[in-house]
Model the fold of this input.
Amino acid sequence: MTELKPVVDVPALMARLGREARAAAAVLALAPAKQKDAALLAAAMLIRANVDDLLEANMKDMTLARAKGLTPALLDRLELDERRIEAMAKGLEEIAALPDPVGTVIAEWDRPNGLHFERVRVPLGVIGIIFESRPSVTADAGALCLKSGNVAILRGGSEGANTIRVIHGCLAEALSAAGLPDAAIALVPTTDRAAVGEMLRGLDGNLDVIVPRGGKSLVARVQEEARVPVFAHLEGLCHVYVDRDADLAMAKSIVLNAKMRRTGVCGSAETLLVDRACAATHLAPLVAMLIEAGCEVRGDAETQKVDPRVKPASEEDWATEYLDAIIAVRVVDGVKEAMAHIARYGSHHTEAIVTGNLETAARFLNEVDSAIVLHNASTQFADGGEFGMGGEIGIATGKFHARGPVGVEQLTSFKYIVRGNGQIRPV
Amino acid sequence: MTELKPVVDVPALMARLGREARAAAAVLALAPAKQKDAALLAAAMLIRANVDDLLEANMKDMTLARAKGLTPALLDRLELDERRIEAMAKGLEEIAALPDPVGTVIAEWDRPNGLHFERVRVPLGVIGIIFESRPSVTADAGALCLKSGNVAILRGGSEGANTIRVIHGCLAEALSAAGLPDAAIALVPTTDRAAVGEMLRGLDGNLDVIVPRGGKSLVARVQEEARVPVFAHLEGLCHVYVDRDADLAMAKSIVLNAKMRRTGVCGSAETLLVDRACAATHLAPLVAMLIEAGCEVRGDAETQKVDPRVKPASEEDWATEYLDAIIAVRVVDGVKEAMAHIARYGSHHTEAIVTGNLETAARFLNEVDSAIVLHNASTQFADGGEFGMGGEIGIATGKFHARGPVGVEQLTSFKYIVRGNGQIRPV
Done:
């Protein structure tokens, strides 16, 4: 007699993955920069060499996804072409070229008793990445973890399963070629959703942090349920405040870029706040510019007055991350009311002020409680690459450990190395 | 008709405390250094001025505690005398004298597009401190939070309730005198244990981190149940490894201090590992020294051979934080086996190597995965004051955000301030 068994015992599978990851983490933590970089460069080469396999696997995924009726936006994220494959390979090379954060001395000092203290970067350990439709996350998240001496456990969306498997195969082969453990970048070998639950519970202490990469419902679930730290932002409800002392031409340029350069990224502006003191001169041109660029404008009563094409904004609009060509516009009484609006409706992600007044700017930069605050620059700079971090695994709006773009440095912890010559502590 | 009501509606009380704390945090985050320091100095003055009230309240607590049959160790922690009160006041003055971490630029850089980036320290927000018998935690934890621009919610043990109330009264009066909100250092006004449960659940998002200060069962409960980040160490099972290249006199001095200076602190050594290659010369003198200093030695078979006074160590001894005049001693095959022992039984807190060989030391310092690793110095230096941090709220063994001693800098987060002159992001 045979019993029916589930195809995969997910808890046992994930527990094993966790143990293997922890063992690999001990190796990775001590791996020299050269060895990690060799693996990254080999992976880039293998990705390029396997372009046909990648395209074929991606075509399978695309066919299934179309049959499932995925939205055009999701299909776009899922799709690979030669340009995107080359970008993925190039991204790996760029990460290889970054300085190795591990072992960097962040601070050092001496004490009067002769003890010498160093604060030295060490990897965090095992990082779980739960992502949705973008298969290239396999390569970039895996590479950022490897560079920072961490083990990655990747759990991708089922839509991209075939593509992800081929990308992961390239990474695994590259790790082996460089003499590093396969388990350094592990792919969860099942699309069973129970695997996510196991990761959220922390794999018996073998998972140190989770990075969700995907839509709001994924991030919300991870933030709600994870028993381990999470690097994430639930939303990027970013504001641009145009102050009374703003140059109109600069304000127009920044607002247009902040809203329209890409509407689907977390750093895109969702609400425009205009100082009442310059509304007479600045509001109408800003609104007209946005509408003419193809942006729907939803305004408060005063904004509605300046242009008949403005639709009325409801209370809900102030709290909505559109991720689309829509913007909410409100007239406020100066920087103080602008900051109060941001404190009430914002998501602590990224906010910008446009002003020629350094005092007003200083106040905004100091008082607004967001990961990124900008003066006279577009909110779309909210990106690890633009910060000069050479890539990011995501942007965090929490205040613990990592805040803002999470690059290789943010994927490390530190330890204290203390050197003496026989010092003992007096009573 | 009157209904019987519970004396305190703890969930409602704690929810209100959380809301008040969050409101106060917005004020504290922007409070100038001078104002915070004025409050700290006023508190020191009030503590000195109220020495009689403090002693009287403490006597009440001591009387009740003796009646309850508390252990001598707990009674010692609970007791205040004039010397301890003066130390508490002096501690407040020392914290006032520290540089203000808030607003410090941790890093700054320019990008080719002319954007200027600054990474600036900001407070974390609201910090919950759950402590047991030591009433002076009220002053030192409250002061460290205030200095770092954070709000403190203090929940002390019932044994010290009267003493804590008087200390807190001094702090509250000092805050008012300095024009800061009372709620900046809040004391949970009930000893109902349900209040701890509410804090562990995070007070509706109004508590950002919890620091448990007390015994292992308290820390274990907080680590297990808290839904917010925790800065803590469950135990300090610290090791001293005496290498083949150790100078015997230095080894004796360090081992004696690491074990016996104070046996009840987390940085005290619990296990001594001696390299087999020097056991013939070093083991017997080390063991004899410890025994003659009043320390019980529990050794492996080889250690038992060198001195008839050595008791046999069981497997459990390697995993025990004695916090007492007891030490486990084992002979190991060089630094590699020492590190394997530490990886297996250690608590990632503090470990020391004694050796004259810089290469061996470098390997130990690099590979041992503990918050603090020392070369030729006592493990008892595991202390924020000894690190030059000017006090600590505790020591953390986790790798997130704070690791090792948690001082005012570790009680901060950061934000990015980006200054431009009209920069927009290219497509």
Notes: Chain A has a mean pLDDT of 96. The longest helix of chain A spans residues 10-30. The CA atoms of residues 10 and 195 of chain A lie 6 Å apart. Chain A touches chain B through 63 residues (CB under 8 Å).
